[in-house]
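A common beginner's mistake is to predict each chain separately and then try to dock the pieces by hand. The better habit, illustrated here, is to supply every component at once so that their relative placement is modeled jointly.
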Amino acid sequence: MIKVESLTKKYGGFTAVDNVSFTARPGRVTGFLGPNGAGKSTSMRIMVGLTPASSGYAEVSGRRFADLPNPGLEVGVLLDASAQHAGRTGREILTIAQRTMGLPASRVDEMLERVSLTPSESSRRVRNYSLGMRQRLGIATALLGDPEVLILDEPANGLDPAGIRWMRDLLRGYADQGGTVLLSSHLLHEIEVIADDLVVIGNGRIVAQGTKAELLASAGTLVRTRDVPTLARALVDADLEFSHMTDAIRVDADADVVGQVALSAGVALTELRAADGAGLEEMFLELTADTQREGVAA
Amino acid sequence: MTAVAVETEVVRTARPTPARIPMSRIVAVELRKSFDTRSGFWLMVSIGALALIATIATILFAPTDELDYEAFASAIGFPMAVILPVIAVLSITSEWSQRSGLTSFTLVPHRSRVITAKLIVTLGIGVVSMLLAAGIGALGNIVGTAITGTDTIWNISGAELFYIVLGNVLGMLVGFMLGLLFRNSPGAIVGYFVYGFVLPPLAMLLAASQDWFDKLQPWVDFNYAQGNLFNGVMDGEMWAQLGVTSIVWLVIPLAIGVRLVMRSEIK
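With all components supplied together, the output reads:
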């Protein structure tokens, strides 16, 4: 379990993290989603004590990170896969972590196997690693102490599609066994397929959070009909917010409500479903529209 | 219809709180870290290699009548004074330059413990290296005088040897301090060379031309005070001078460096 409470980080006049509060629960994958520079990495660095917070606090397994007697056994951390001494071999980096945590040497081989780094790869120096290999090594370091909590910053970066699939299955399995997983990403689709809960951050502030299902629900219902004007009138009469899409209408209401309105109005529907996928993406773009560098191509 | 969130409140069996990482383990890991990269390994090898080269050079080039233990000690002393502080600098700065600190300071969340372990390892390496160098020098003295057929002269006492080791350890501490202050390998190494090799001749010039500085120098110039250690004679006043200058040039900056490291953000 990770608990973040009113976390704020200021750099002079710039507020990188602004009153961020959320909880990542055991047995669930919590996606920390936001555009680049939104404050995800800074928040994560504060959680593990690498960056001092201006105010607020973060707790892992009910304690401040610095109060964990042997953090590697309780929290697996991967903040930046490239932040390793380039002159060490992959195996050596794992060995240092294994010794620091006081684990048997056999754990190193187990972990190398778990992340599919071959003996010849693990005896190479990290400077010769691809980003994907570094991510695998970083994951191995994080999993080494069999921790109950994982904090991973953009772990899928640099992985090929098969690697992303592997990572997804690994984290899913981890959460299903009761682990707490917090992972950040700036890619909605990456998070959407794995996360149970979402925390969406923009400009240092949380703009939305909840279960994925809740956030999908709040994205509304997609409805199609040949008789758009009649349905639109009925929706207005029912006081429902809606917007016209290319060949459909997106309504800010549950599917059963929309279906009821259509039935009363005697409109035949060709499609009625939760506006997921597109809906969440639309929400993500909307929520971060003010904060994104590029702005949103409407 | 949207999928209903399935509450998967799986609770793991509560695990016992792990024991705190003992200091001995952090020291052992830090020691391993000074040898496990190619650059670190060769830096360590170079201590022995340079001592050997200096010894051989002394046998080859020193005038026969000057071939005594002191000649070997001073020949070996110079490369030691260069290389040991660099080792001290890199033990700190590599955590920042190579960004491995992200892992080091997360696995051991108390930075002071990591820094203390590094200090212990640095001092250990310093003392062991100096004793190794002294041994190589002694061997050179025996072999060298056997070749030239002159008497083997042991003109360095135990106390003098201790002074030399202390002098080099102080040099390492200066490197350690600069590493903490700069947290950048080139910056700290250049800083050390300016301190160790550029400032002394300038101070000497100033002392030669300015009478007031000549009188003041022993009390303000750390290099100068350290130099007494290498001359082999230390009286009470010299110890006092060493103490005063090391507080100003070593202890206070070290405290500032530690404070900076404790509060800094590790990216």
